[in-house]
Amino acid sequence: MKEMYTCDHCGEEFPLEETLLVEGDRLCRHCTASLTALCDECGTRIYLEHDEGDSNRFLCSSCRERYYTRCDRCNTLIYNENVYEYDGENLCEDCYDEVCTEGPIHEYDYVPDLVFHGKGLRKFGVELEIDEGGKSRSNANRLLEIANRDAVNLYIKSDGSLDDGLELVTHPMSLDYHLHEMPWEDILDEAKRLDYRSHSTNTCGLYIHISRMAFGCTYETQEECIARLVFFVEKFWPELLRFSRRTQGQINHWAARYGMKLNPKDQIYHAKNSCAGRYTAVNLTNADTVEIRMFRGTLKLNTLIATLQLVDHLCEVAVSMSDQELQDMSWFDFLDQITEPELVQYLKERRLYVNEPVNTYDATEVF
Q1: DSSP-assigned beta bridge partners for residue 79
Q2: Rounded to an integer, what distance in angstroms lies between the CA atom of residue 324 and that of residue 328?
């Protein structure tokens, strides 16, 4: 005689071989077909009401917990190995792409519609790298709120050379605007409060883009002035290397020199035919700007200001002196032109001005 079992759902009796065990219950084939499904990961039969999958898969609670995560934005189930972690959230690929598109942290090659600030054609765009504080949307938004509270001054990009940080990029600005309108002090203080570092890392640089229009309105004039700029950097390489706070290894990697030539014309010819690329002290590969890449990153306001003032003096030398006058110039001739207190103080700190004692604490780059 066949052994009979009562279905735990419909109450009908069936032979044992016509029933299935589901989560401890004995069910007939009809109830099994209408009430249960197989987990797509492990094959275990579960009640439909206990299914933790989605429209594409059935999942038991064990496999759901072991192999899957829900996107914090759209609630989609995603394999753990396909999760994108961003600013404390677990995201699917679509939501991650949407977040990156909408900002506030843009991809490295992002360029917005530029906003030009300040009078005159001599404009400087600053790229300041900060690291070790996180590639965080909330941090980025906080820095942008401060920088852009009165005008569109700053945008933020990611950079693969950083360990866990951000690249702060300004729109083109006159020196006067940088000094008196751009809220640099508040930006740097907030970056420090958020535990970012710049000088004290091995990853961060301070890059300054100079508009080509700063060197003249014609291509020929621009080329002559840029030649003098490159010549100045090569002529006074030891002094500028000391000013930069970069190590020799950092310079070689991020801002290599072209090598000294006899005059500006030979210098620019050598630079343009060196195939050195963009990782040079004076990067000539951009169409609309010349980029000075020598300087180490900083969160010290006086250092940032002094660097901008130095670059402004380099531009003035390039546009106001002849090739011969530049060839005859000494470092101390150059220093005679400098009166800005921030730049004078920084030059003293770096022992590039006069050997006067300076406050050791003030001279120390901590951030």
Answers
A1: 68
A2: 6
